[in-house]
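User: Predict the full complex structure for these chains.
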Amino acid sequence: MTGETYLKKLIQSELQQVKLLREEPDVDVRLVNDILWDILGLALQFDAWYDKKLQEIDQTEVVTIDEELKKRQKMVEWAKRREKALEEMFDRNDPDQKDLADLFDDIRKQALYTRVFYQSDTKFVKKQIVEREHAHKRVDELKAERGTIEREIEELKKATEDFEGFNAKLNSEFEKLITEHQIDSITDIDIESYFIAKQYLVEKISVAEKYANGITNSKLKEVFENDIKKDKEELENAERAMFLYGMGELLRENVNSFEKLLRKMNKINEYATIFERGNSERSSLTKSFIFDTIEIEKILNTPRRIAELEERINDIDVAIENAYDNVKGLREINNVINNIEPEYPIKEEIKGEVKEIEPTVITSNVEANKLNDGEYKVTKKEKAKSSLLEKIREYKKEIIAAVAMAPIIAITMGVVSALFPNNIKIGNSSQLATYIEQKVDLEPHTQVDQIDIESSTSDIVIADTIDKAINETIEDIEKQYSVTIGDQVFVSNGVKYYRNSPAAQFGQNVFETGRSGLKEGNYYVNKIALLQKDAIGQPTGHIIAVNDEPGVSAEELATSLGLAKGTYDVIMHISLGNTEGEFVEYVEGIPNNLCWIKTIDGKYLDGLSLTKSANEVLSKGRGMAR
Amino acid sequence: MNIEVNDVITLHNNEKHLVLADALYNDQKYYLLIQVTEDEENIKDHFKIVKEKKDTSQTILIDVKDPNELDAVGKLFKVDSE
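Assistant: Here is the predicted structure of the two-chain assembly.
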């Protein structure tokens, strides 16, 4: 039996014992409480067992990133298992178990944060593997391209070096054409005859055509037209023979370099073009000349082309060398996960952001920008009117007492509305005072280490009710305002936005919705950055963490990193979503990723308001794929 | 500018606040403020705990947000003996 099963069974057995004792006519309260304390101790051991298990897995030696991923996935699996076990450990419908469950709440939350933390680590490792695969593929493509280029260079060099061979091959093709078209059979005398015939036929056809137009007798007209047709055929033959004769001379011109060969081919093409002007398509004879010319031009461009290709090879070599730059190795992964600072500084990647926005820097209102968020300049001071002091006098004591008791609620929601859900107006000081007295009296019941097991049932019920009210109020505040990846947020005009998260924290290079590129409207939170504040709450520009896991809230992220409230700023990154306006996870470089906006302690305040919670957005199950 | 209890201060954003109480903690001055209406005749249910920013020629108040600091300072505010 594993420690896990053993402890679980032991807890269940003790819980059963409590149930049986409660069924007795005379309940032995002391014995019940003793067992409850035992159970609490066992539950803590149970949780510690998982810690040990997780630590054990974490300390497993791995050699490759793939093994690291398997290790991380195993840790997430165990973290989930613990979360589920702790969730199911106590039955909240049973009053005894409910008390235990409440006492165990912080540990359950811690288990949840741990799981989120492990999931984030796993995602990070998985990302490296995906990037490594991309890099592999890219390198293969680059190597293939390099091979093709090398072969091309080789062929080009070979062709350049072998003019004689190329020219001989071309001459052989030309001789074949000469033979095929019987050019050698055309003599100088033939050409002279063709020339005279041509002149005669041109004149004859012209006259005959004019005369034929005026003939009305159809038979006579037909005779004339047949004659014209024969004459035209004879003219065409004469022209073709003259063309071939001239072409033969051009084809046999001797050259000794590619440059001269190109000039020869240009002359041939020009000659062919003049002869064939008016023909709708070139003959197979002249078409082949064009291809030959292109081939020669290509050879003549070889040095330039080789230089271009060699430059491309250099680029490819650099790209291959840098292909794995964005992939972290096992040691780097562990450094990031264990928060070990690298020996060299990591700059935040801001390339590609705010691509679609053409912002203009606001130069006005410089004075106001000097104040950081949460800072106020006192512009005037005067004594309060006596009428105002009179109004506040009778409630002042209660208000100050309430602030002393629950300052966070007082400043977040206001004293009266926070402590009294029924919206009792200021003025009902007796109820406020009563509440405060009750709360102060019952305060010890909320302390884990001061449980008074002898307290009466009514005291516990009152304490529970009040604590529940306070807890629910606090939870409501948290839920309402916790910035979460996947939230749809409405950004009003006048909200300041920035190119990167440190600029947002410092308030440098500010842009403003409605005045710069970004318009008022709904956007999605697709990334959250936590930036450190110094001891006096001033920004440092140091990025503690950046997370793009949908569903993770700023608060969860901070808690998982063990950050105390007030020691960091929450900067959110927004996007437009996909073309259908649905949420998509952050992917670097896509144009829909927009800009950074600083939140007030991770809350939607001052021009930002929640349109749809991440829970609602992500439960649709659409638009999640990268 | 020396801020005292029962003063009404106007902030750069034109909000007006009545100083309900003050306290000294870790050599730092803290104030409990309650917002008042524009005509300074009525209060709003909106509180702030602020501290003075040191080493400035102007009077700058900073929102206190750290829960531990709030807990510590919240208990130090006393009703003045008017």
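Chain A has a mean pLDDT of 78.
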